């Protein structure tokens, strides 16, 4: 499969006005909750965490040391989420290709490469993120296998059937699901694996709650109802084989993040309230391309 070298000029598919606004947002973003965590080991994750918290970090008496320990614990939980997603991509071989849709600063593709030795292509609307992620890959010496592209994940231009696995990690709320799943279905070979981790609003609650609306406004996104994931997958030959509600596993992460005065963004209470009142869920869906 012909993949442009990093830094090569490519003809980008047209972006909608909304997508251009999203690109502007991420090109300007310098959020400490993304950057400070990534500096720990140069793995930058643009998503949230799962798992039990080591609450001893908040009892650290030295203020500077407490900040460091809380930051490290949040990063550990975010990395655990990336590993959980990657664990559902296999079995993969070093010869296989995987596709990271909405790759951010690139941590997920690195995790997949470390686990399977596979080739990875990440796509982002942000030139700043793509350049940063490619520099990280070069620094790790994996740029021959892990590459990031300034492209539209709804219309990548990559080879049909060229990928053994693909995923979205908290990026589906920026696109129409039918367009997204059509592209994943096109890119995946028959029997290929698609994985998504996402926040979605709970249909049984009713319409999107006030808290979900606040999250939408904060991130300039449009959170989808849970049911629409399954309807859209069915329309595009993606058959779920595993579904897991990660809501209980992510609440501790948000409880810890709320204590991190040096990292809070002001959206923490909205996430916690939405998870607790049942209007919002954190979902893992694993599907096979048939």
Can you tell me the overall shape? Answer: globular
Category from helices, strands and their pairing: alpha/beta
When the domains are counted, the total is: 1
What is the CATH homology-level superfamily? Vaccinia Virus protein VP39
What do we call the CATH topology? Rossmann fold
What's the gyration radius in Å?
18 Å
Which strand order spans the largest sheet, edge to edge or round the barrel?
3-2-1-4-5-7-6
Can you tell me the CATH architecture? 3-Layer(aba) Sandwich
The helix tally amounts to 10
Largest sheet: 7 strands, mixed
Mean pLDDT: 93
Helix content: 40-55%
Q: Look at the structure and give the CATH class.
A: Alpha Beta
Task: List low-pLDDT spans.
Answer: 1-12
Q: What share of residues are in beta strands?
A: 15-25%
How many strand segments?
A: 7
Order of helices and strands: HHHEHEHEEHEHHEHHE
Distance between the termini: 22 Å
């Amino acid at each position: 499969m012909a993949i442009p070298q990093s830094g090569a000029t490519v003809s980008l598919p047209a972006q909608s006005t909304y997508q251009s606004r999203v690109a502007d947002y991420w090109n300007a973003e310098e959020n400490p909750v993304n950057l400070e965590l990534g500096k720990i080991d140069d793995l930058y994750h643009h998503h949230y965490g799962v798992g039990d918290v080591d609450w001893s970090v908040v009892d650290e008496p030295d203020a500077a040391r407490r900040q460091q320990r809380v930051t490290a614990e949040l990063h550990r939980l975010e990395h655990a989420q990336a590993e959980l997603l990657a664990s559902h991509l296999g079995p993969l071989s070093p010869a296989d290709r995987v596709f990271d849709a909405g790759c951010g600063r690139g941590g997920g593709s690195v995790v997949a490469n470390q686990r399977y030795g596979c080739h990875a292509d990440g796509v982002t609307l942000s030139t700043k993120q793509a350049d940063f992620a490619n520099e990280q890959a070069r620094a790790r010496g994996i740029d021959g296998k892990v590459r990031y592209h300034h492209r539209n994940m709804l219309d990548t231009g990559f080879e049909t059937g060229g990928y053994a696995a693909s995923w979205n990690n908290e990026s589906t709320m920026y696109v129409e699901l039918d367009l997204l799943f059509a592209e994943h279905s096109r890119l995946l070979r028959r029997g290929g694996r698609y994985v998504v981790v996402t926040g979605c609003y709970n249909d049984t609650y009713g319409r999107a709650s006030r808290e979900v609306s606040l999250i939408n406004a904060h991130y300039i996104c449009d959170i989808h109802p849970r049911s629409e994931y399954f309807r859209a997958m069915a329309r595009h030959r993606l058959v779920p084989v595993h579904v897991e509600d990660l809501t209980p596993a992510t609440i501790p992460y948000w409880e810890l993040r709320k204590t991190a005065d040096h990292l809070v963004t002001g959206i923490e209470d909205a996430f916690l309230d939405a998870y607790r009142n049942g209007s919002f869920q954190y979902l893992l869906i694993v599907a096979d391309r048939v």
